[in-house]
Amino acid sequence: EIVLTQSPATLSLSPGERATLSCRASQSVSSYLSWYQQKPGQAPRLLIYDASNRATGIPARFSGSGSGTDFTLTISSLEPEDSAVYYCQQRINWPLTFGGGTKVEIK
Amino acid sequence: EVQLLESGGGLVQPGGSLRLSCAASAFTFSNYAMSWVRQAPGKGLEWVSTISGSGGSTYSADSVKGRFTISRDNSKNTLYLQINSLRAEDTAIYYCAKSGGAPYDPFDIWGQGTTVTVSS
User: Fold this and answer.
1) Chain A partners of B46 at a C-beta cutoff of 8 Å?
2) Which positions ≥6 away from B90 have C-beta within 8 Å?
3) Closest by alpha carbon to B58, among A33, A95, A29, A3?
4) Which of B2, B64, B107, B114 has the most A C-beta neighbours within 10 Å, making it the best mutation to test the interface with A?
5) Rounded Cα–Cα distance for residues B101 and B97 (Å)
6) How do residues A26-66 score in pLDDT, each as one tens digit?
């Protein structure tokens, strides 16, 4: 099973600041890495697929990068509505696995 | 608008059973793989099971193999999860999620979830 480790656990930033979230895989997942956003009381929403492709309707301030074992989700300029938990997920191997999540708090 | 609507959750005793349903609308259901993902209270996301568009291939997490069965009825645009021998650790919100054409594609649409509580 591929283990995904996300860091930091919590990120507290002000509106307009840049957020950088990390996801590290226990073995290579090539570019088969997705990012999801989950706001309190809501279902997750796909943000980024295949490491760097924005899903439909996702604002340009969200971007993804990386390949192999190290991946980054960047929010270029935080908006208040970006307060959420962000999960990475790999799809190269069964079982599909998620990271433990990074909580982004807006000061 | 593409929609997924789960139902069937509830309070069940340990060892009991439930069948969850997920009604899909506004897309060609049989063309897409579908999955169940769960989230225990205050915890992260855990993939449970995936079924191909035709229903001919299924994949499940080791934690639920032998107890949970994923299936679909393409004539009814509905996904199911039969859950047996329930344990306290199965308590969670269960989300159905649509993937792309392949079973391992990302989850691009999610339902709002149905809550399963296992308790005596």
Assistant:
1) 98
2) B38, B64, B83, B116, B118
3) A95
4) B107
5) 13
6) 999 999 999 999 999 999 999 999 999 999 999 999 999 99
pLDDT, tens only, A70-82? 999 999 999 999 9
Q: pLDDT at position B45, please? A: 98
> Which of B1, B27, B45 is the best substitution to test chain A (most A C-beta atoms within 10 A)?
B45
**Contact criterion met (CB < 8 Å) for B106 and A91:** yes
Sign of CA dihedral B34, B95, A33, A76: positive
A87: Cβ contacts below 8 Å, ≥ 6 apart: A6, A35, A36, A38, A44, A98, A99, A100, A101, B44, B45
Contact of A98 with chain B, judged by CB distance below 8 Å, is answered with: yes
Contact B47 A95 (CB under 8 A): yes
Cα A44 to Cα A66: distance, rounded to the nearest angstrom: 22
DSSP state of B70: E
Q: ∠ CA(A30), CA(A34), CA(A37), 5° rounding?
A: 160
**Residue B57 contacts A where some CB pair is shorter than 8 Å:** no
Would the CB atoms of B108 and A46 count as touching at under 8 Å? yes
The three-class DSSP label of residue A20 is strand
Please name the residue of chain B whose CA is at the shortest distance from the CA of residue A102: B44
CA-closest candidate to residue B102, choices B45, B54, B41, B64: B54
